[in-house]
Structure formats: C-alpha cells, structure tokens
Specification:
Strand order of the largest sheet: 8-7-6-9-10-11-12
Strand content: 15-25%
Radius of gyration: 31 Å
Largest sheet: 7 strands, parallel
InterPro entries: ACT-like_dom_sf, ACT_dom, ASB_dom_sf, D-2-hydroxyacid_DH, D-isomer_2_OHA_DH_cat_dom, D-isomer_DH_CS, D-isomer_DH_CS1, D-isomer_DH_NAD-bd
Number of helices: 16
Catalytic activity: (2R)-3-phosphoglycerate + NAD(+) = 3-phosphooxypyruvate + NADH + H(+); (R)-2-hydroxyglutarate + NAD(+) = 2-oxoglutarate + NADH + H(+)
Protein name: D-3-phosphoglycerate dehydrogenase
Helix content: 25-40%
Structural class: alpha/beta
Distance between the termini: 18 Å
Number of strands: 22
Organism: Peribacillus huizhouensis
Keywords: Amino-acid biosynthesis, NAD, Oxidoreductase, Serine biosynthesis
Amino acid sequence: MYQILVADAIKPEGLGPLLESPKVHLIEKTVVEAKHQLHEIDAILVRSATTVTEELISSMPNLKIIARAGVGIDNIDVPAATKRGIVVVNAPDGNTISTAEHTFAMMAALMRHIPQARASLKNGEWKRSSFIGTELYGKNLGIVGMGRIGSEIAKRAKVFGMDVLVYDPFLTSDRAKKMGVTSLELAKLLTLADIITVHTPLTPETRNLINKKNLLTCKKGVYLLNCARGGIINEEDLYELIIKGHIAGAAIDVFAEEPPLGHQLLELDSVIATPHLGASTKEAQLNVATQVAQEVLSFLNGNPVTSSINLPAISKEVFAKVQPFYELIKQMGSIVSQSMPEGIHEITVNYAGEVLDFDTSILTKSLLSGFFKSRLDVPVNEVNAFLIAKERGLTIGEKTSHDTFGYSNFITVTAKGDNRQLGISGTYVDHYGSRIVRLNDFTIDFHPEGNLLYVQHMDRPGVIGRVGKILGDHGENIATMQVGRKQAGGEAIMLLSFDNPLSDDILRKLKQLDDITFLYRITLHGS
C-alpha cells in the first residue's frame, strides 16, 4: 500500500486515478499536520502553497516521487530531490490552453482599455472618448519563448491577423516555418514588436531578461504582457518607462513577489493586473491534478513518466518497446555488482543491433541502478545514477557496434575492478525473454532471475558431481543448470539456480573443493 501525501488542496475529481487504485492510501493533510507520518510517505502532491525543501525531503526517507500540480517547480528543491534519487514531475501542458486564453484575454483588454472603461462606467461616467483603443489586426506580436503556451498564442494571433515574431533559441527554422512565424534574435524582436508577451520559465538566465536597457530599444508606445513567471520582466524598469511614456501599458498576471500588495505598478491607470489567474480555470485545475495523479500512479507501478523534470521523458509506446532491454541491463548490472565484491572503477557498455533504435542513456542508467542497489544504503535509480557514479569515481562509457553475434540485439557490459575484470553479454529474444549468453568469455544461456550460484572451476572429471553431492547433503534441489568451457581440461563454469538462496555454510564447503577457482552467490529479483 503506497502512502501518498496530498499537501495542498486538490479536488477529488483530480485525484481520481489515485482514489480508484487499491494500492494507494491518500493522506490529505498539510505537511505540518502530517509531520508524524512523513517517514512513511512514498509520494507527495503539491500545488504552489507547499514548498518542498531539502529539509522536508530529508524527513521523508521513503519518498520516491514529488508531483507538482502545475507548470512551475520553483517551490521544489529539484537538486536535493535528484541527489536522493527522487523523481520530480509536473503538469507542463495541463494548463496550456487556460494560460494561452488568459494571455490573449489580457492582451485584448489591455489594447481596448476594458477594465478602465468598466471602472469608469461603474462610477457613473460616460467617457467614450477617453477609452479609444488599438486594434490587434496587423500588429507585430513579439512572443518571447515558443514552448507550448507560446505556440498556442501564436495560433490565436494569426487568426486575429497579427504578424508573429518569436524569440526562442531552441526553435528550429523548420518548425518556425511550419507555424508561419518569424524567428528572430531577442534584440531584433524588441525593436519590431508592437506588443511583447513573455512565456519562458524563470531561470537565472531569464530573470530580468526584459529590462530597461533592452526596453529602451523598443518602439515608443509598445505594450508588454507577463502571464508566465514574475521576474522575467524587471518590474522597476517597467514602471519607470511607463511613467516616462516610452511604454504605453502593461498587462501583468504574475509578480516577482506575490501577493504584490502596494505594488507601484498597480497604481498606474495604464496597467491592468490579475492575481495569477493564468491556470485558474475549472478545466485546467482538473487537468493538472489528473495528469500528475496519473504520473504518480504510473511511476509507483513501475511504468514510465512523461513529464519528469529530472528524468528523461519517454512515451508509453516507446517504453513498451525499450522495457525488455531496460529490465535485461538492470539485471546485468546486478550480476556485475554481486560477482565482483571489490572496488570497481570503470564500467563500459557496448550496444549492438536493434537496441540502437532507442536512446541508450536510459538503459545505461538502468544498468547503474541495478549495479548500485546491492552496494549502497541510499536510494539509487535512473534519476541520480550518473551523479552517484561520479561521486564515487566510477567512470562510465558507452560504445556502439555492428557485431550482434547472430542475435537481433546484443549488450555487453565490461567492468574493471581493483583486482580483476568481468565481462557479461545479454540479449532479448521474443517469446524467450532476457538471456545472458556470455559470462567471463564463457558461452552460456540462462534467464537472469532468481537465486543463482556461479562456479568457475577447472574442467576435471568429478567436479560437478562433488558440487552436486554437497548440495544434496544439505537438501538443496537444483532447479536448472548451465555448464560451459573454453577447451577440454581448461577453465570451465557452471551456473546453477535454486528455489532459495544458498546458506553461507554451503558456500564455505563448496569453496574448499579441489579445482574450484572461485564462486559467488547471485540473487536477482524479477521485473
């Protein structure tokens, strides 16, 4: 039963996927109210009211995933979560339409002075000439940030007959052409736009991105909108240039500090503002909650997440295809770790065949997850695998090859330790599953699961029989057995599987046998 803390107010409809799951126990309390239960929490859902700090993360030793029912993640310490191997997800497209529509509504209201006209009329005035507006048709709209929301705004602007100029360093020329927009450098966009709206995340690079220096290059009478994140537009510079008449007006939904009580921008008649309402529609609230609820449930059930902040996103369709290799290589990592009880300073993975159709980085992370699981007492998974490897001085290498040795796919892992080296190769075969086909240069064929015993010995008559006798004397039944050798009378191996792990006493007696070079016990859990 997974313990999931819903720390901020989320309507039951949005929690539907979790409420319907028999594997989930929901705790709808604030962090303070749930302080005595934090040690057992597997997942936490928040909106913007709760700040997930490093201290809070440390107080939840079982925490596996943090979900933000919204787009922004500035109330979550992502580096601290990543270090702990905790996945952070948000709902990047749940409020896309809501925010795009709000931005466009703000733009129209700003250009036609609708809030000011309504306030005047409510005061008993009829000053039609005081509220002459400006049409959107034919104007240059400058969009800073061409993500989901920026793209939706561009679609609507084109319907209104506006010319769309965009700045986004990640926008390709092909995509810009398909969308019918003109991609420009920021400096050029600012000089040409009649209206500028920002839609970038708030990062150190985008904080105060729009400031006095570059605003002075804009046309006199330009309009600005910020329905993204407070702090992208320098508010003091904006205020100064509105007062001086260089900027005609602004529409602000977000502020650097919220609530913006007594903010000087709110005193200006040419500024319209709303209290962070971009995502505040019934549909958006339901969408973001449902999306993160589904993400949490999917992750806890061992499936991929599609909107992780600190883990590469992967669709369910792609994951279904890559999952066999994902599970295979995790088991290979576990075999390497248990087979080399010593310091390992280098691991190299070689991929060949159809596995190269996928992004192999997620497979390498899965390998490290399996490798570290039996070695460390801290959570290690695909989120923090590379970070943990770096902290421990483990060099990771990836190679590709065309040589599949007759298989449709072939993965080889080579580990170099302080005293020896180990190589293991595996493949996935339809209808047969994962197979380990080479171990320490010995050809072999076994399914990597269960309680295994790997024995390396000299190829002498009677060795297998003596091993079998010790096992039989201790009541251990061999489930399966694989043997292999390089040449008659030389080095050989046997790989045995059992229903239960072998005891330390049995291992000691087996090690005392003549002709046994070394042996080790391996325990592999199924996927």
